[in-house]
Design brief:
This protein is 73% helix and 2% strand. With 360 residues, it is an all-alpha fold. Strand 1 (199-202) and strand 2 (205-208) form a beta hairpin. Helix 5 runs parallel beside helix 10, helix 5 packs antiparallel against helix 13 (251-277) and helix 7 runs antiparallel to helix 8 (157-176).
């Protein structure tokens, strides 16, 4: 009888104890809801905000110091014209760095593609349209070689592109015999090669086709990276290639496509460079690799891959352009430009490290 009583009273006692127990769910103090953490979280979600803020502040500061001399439509569009080549190459560099890679050969590919366009037109007598296509194919093939060695052979991107930089640079000088095709010859026989140098006047502001192409390119890539499966795969590969592989992402194909697209964009940059300087020179644009990395880093794209916005690389290029023109108009020594840009690079990496902690 006693056993039956205990059995019968067990559930009742349990229900009574349950009703009298605290109903609140266990909680833990979260000390990460301060203003600093909120800012950190917002910047983590929108990595292009930092370079945009820096760009706006720098424009305001130089505008106050220089007045209408800096705020004129001519000065504003001059900055765009000066950064158009770096902006295009930075777009190519951005998609590579988003995969946690790096491409040191972008400048050399750009120059070689422009040389191919010029040499195929004037040495072999091909129509300019066909010569341009050959130049674009040349850049794409160089990118394919980079992508194949990185994705299939599993070589480090830094080593692969460093070697490709030297190979393409040497090929460029050997093939062109270090000869420059003058702008007068191009304007007379193949004006298509100077297409990106043509200008459009909009309300007193002068834009070149190269500037328009740079802006459209960045917008198209920004859409592709955020709204397409390929773009999401690029971020996934950059964040964790092993996890992306397990999720069904074809990592090798994504990497090869990224490097091929980078090479194609560099070829377009070579075409735009002909329009910018007017001639085909095998010695121009040699620092485009460093300048593009500078724009990407200042633009808030993480060198560790998987985080950042390609709009940030455009903002980064514009920041460099604003500092360069602003200091030049102030009559400052050119070395101050390098000093400030160097500080910006270090600050950008430090901010990136701080922002990345929000996900830890």
């Amino acid at each position: 009888m006693t056993s039956d009583t205990k059995t019968a009273g067990g559930p009742a006692e349990f229900e009574t104890a349950a009703e009298s127990s605290p109903q609140a769910v266990a909680s833990f103090d979260d000390h990460r809801h301060g203003v600093g953490h909120k800012i950190q979280h917002r910047l983590h979600q929108n990595p292009s905000l930092v370079p945009l803020i820096v760009l706006v502040i720098s424009i305001i500061v130089f505008g106050i110091l220089l007045g209408s001399k800096f705020f004129s439509p001519f000065a504003m569009t001059l900055i765009l014209q000066q950064v158009q080549i770096v902006g295009i190459v930075a777009a190519a560099q951005s998609i590579v760095i988003l995969t946690a890679g790096i491409d040191l050969s972008v400048g050399a590919i750009m120059v070689l593609s422009s040389v191919v366009m010029g040499q195929f037109t004037f040495r072999y007598g091909l129509p300019p349209e066909l010569a341009v296509i050959c130049g674009l194919i040349c850049g794409t093939l160089c990118g394919y070689v980079n992508g194949f060695l990185v994705a299939v052979v599993k070589l480090p991107p830094f080593i692969v592109t460093l070697g490709m930089w030297q190979i393409v640079l040497a090929t460029n000088f050997l093939y062109s015999a270090n000869e420059t095709i003058r702008s007068q010859e191009i304007a007379k026989a193949a004006p298509l090669l100077q297409l990106f140098g043509n200008k459009v006047n909009i309300g007193g502001a002068i834009f070149t086709y190269g500037v328009i192409f740079m802006v459209l390119l960045v917008l198209v890539l920004a859409y592709a990276l955020r709204q397409t499966a390929w773009g999401r795969h690029v971020y996934a590969v950059g964040d964790d290639p092993e996890a992306a592989q397990l999720s069904g992402v074809q990592v090798k194909k994504v990497l090869i496509s990224v490097y091929m697209l980078s090479g194609l964009i560099c070829a377009f940059a070579g075409w735009a460079m002909i329009g910018r300087i007017g001639s085909v020179s095998p010695t121009s644009g040699q620092l485009a690799n460093i300048e593009s990395i500078t724009a990407v880093v200042i633009g808030g794209i993480s060198l560790f891959g998987g985080r950042g916005s390609i709009l940030g690389s455009l903002f980064g290029a514009l920041i460099v352009g604003v500092f360069t023109l602003g200091l030049r108009l102030l009559g400052a020594d050119a070395q101050w430009t390098y000093l400030l840009i160097g500080l910006l690079i270090i600050a950008a990496v430090a901010v990136d490290q701080w922002i990345r902690k929000v996900s830890v």
